[in-house]
Design a protein that fits this description.
Elements: H1 8-18, H2 35-53, H3 57-62, E1 66-67, E2 72-73, H4 76-87, H5 106-119, H6 121-140, H7 143-154, E3 158-163, E4 179-182, E5 188-198, E6 207-215, E7 226-232, E8 234-236, E9 242-245, E10 248-253, E11 264-269, E12 282-286, H8 293-329, H9 352-384, H10 388-424, H11 435-443, H12 452-463, H13 466-489, H14 491-514, H15 520-524, H16 527-550, H17 556-572, H18 575-584, H19 589-592
Parallel strand pairs: 3-6
Antiparallel strand pairs: 1-2, 4-5, 5-11, 5-12, 6-7, 7-12, 8-9, 10-11
Length: 598
Amino acid sequence: MTSTLLSRRDLRFLLYEWLDAQALTRRPRYADHSQETLDGALDLAERVATDHFAPHNKTNDAHEPRFDGERVHVIPEVGRALRAHAETGLSSLALDASVGGGQLPRVVSSACDAYFQAANPGTAAYPFLTAANAKLLLAHGSPEQVDTFVRPMVEGRFTGTMCLSEPQAGSSLADITTRAEPAEDGTHRLFGNKTWISGGDHELSENIVHLVLARIPGGPPGVRGISLFVVPKHLVREDGALGERNDVVTAGLNHKMGYRGTVNALLNFGEGRHTPGGVPGAVGYLVGPPHQGLRQMFHMMNGARIGVGAGATAVGYTGYLKSLRYARERLQGRPLGAKDPEHPPVPIIEHTDVRRMLLAQKSYVEGALALVLYCARLVDEEASAEDPAHAERAHLLLDALTPIAKSWPSQWCLEANSLAIQVHGGYGYTREYDVEQHYRDNRLNAIHEGTHGIQALDLLGRKAVLDHGARLSLLLETARATVERARALGGQEAAYAELLAAALDRTARATADAWSDGDPSVALANATPYLEATGHVVIAWMWLEQLTAAHGKQGTFYEGKRAAASYFFRYELPRTEAWFALVASRDRTVLDTPPEVL
């Protein structure tokens, strides 16, 4: 039976017919791989996700982690799935070979990861957070920190977290108060509280490696005074064995609408429950130089943001495939022209409005998957290009696309999940069908790793204007190159190329108009519609890229690509004009509305 997690045919198209992932194996960094090993990784990911992750997705949702005041209890299926994930090497596919990783191209490992995000996002969160933690320490940690903490994470023995938010600060990291006091032994002792810590406490691994933002007393105020520390749940001895319990304790769990299978903890550091070495405070090891913590953490966060977009895409994608299967099997109603009440009912996919909803879902999820894999391909380009100029170009383009890759799938693949419920009708609103859980799980992604509004501020307030607009200019230039290729093909591709060309010009004008009076408060009052519009333009670009890759190819799959592209250009791209008009007008409605009238 065809998988309802992801479409393997679509992945083959995106990876090999469009992004030319196999060409990466000719570069030194990926020379140990071939298309056979890339396909083998995809086969393995699909099998492990199907056999070990998908079966307990609903159980994970119904029986969320429980804290008894001392220990966090997680259903046993999660541990078994994580062991299978680690033992097959899937936990470290993209990590460097020097630490035991597979050093697979990121574009392929991201496709592999999507299977797990579609199958069971609650369980998948543990290894994905761990991999992000390991990548940060590989980039910024000392050799000793890599040996002590990264290697056990690669082996699947340790898991990792990121500890940023605090109850009183939320997303405003300038207001964090956790402090790190220097100790005589060269470590620091941490005191404070962190919340919303995914994977923050459990017994699924031997140890948990927390990456914690904190302030060293006497440092600069605001974000300039934030440092980064490794704070393990258990200290690690020189021989690698676990030592004393560190003074990191769970104060409670957050109970979420979705993603219920992932432990989400409130953690107290240095409350005095444990005193390693007889000294108060949680033992922390400074990562890199002091006061560079936020810059270092963004190494993890930027990757995590694209990962959130990929997760949103995967959950939207599986919802689409399940609603498509349902629409083909569910018999209900008769064709509009059928007058005979004894005429047999038809599959609901025969009804035009159902096809509209399916086309909308297809255009959202396949467009979003193209975007997140394109971003992963840029990561590979940055890591492996022989020409430094090409690597720098990839870096700048990825920087521009990151807020879009995080937020657009989180917004519109959630809409795909909503439409999947609608296709199921009343059944879709019941727990007996998967699609209601998919919607609840996906709703968190608009908040994860910086809210939709924060990404909008980043895009219009930084990425669009930084270095005299170099990033946005590069994005527009790259998309215009696609326009030129499509124009040369003629036909449908050329027609949609003209629509995209106009939208790209409108993006540039709206950006300039938003900043025309130089007042950030006015420009950024409409940052969110700017993100919506620019995101839609980028997805239209992704669809034009796919159309050019499918040019001249025949068959049901390619016809489906052309239909979804037509839907996006005809139904979705026109939305951008209203959004851009609002941005360009520097409308002050939101800015001038006093809080007391709301």
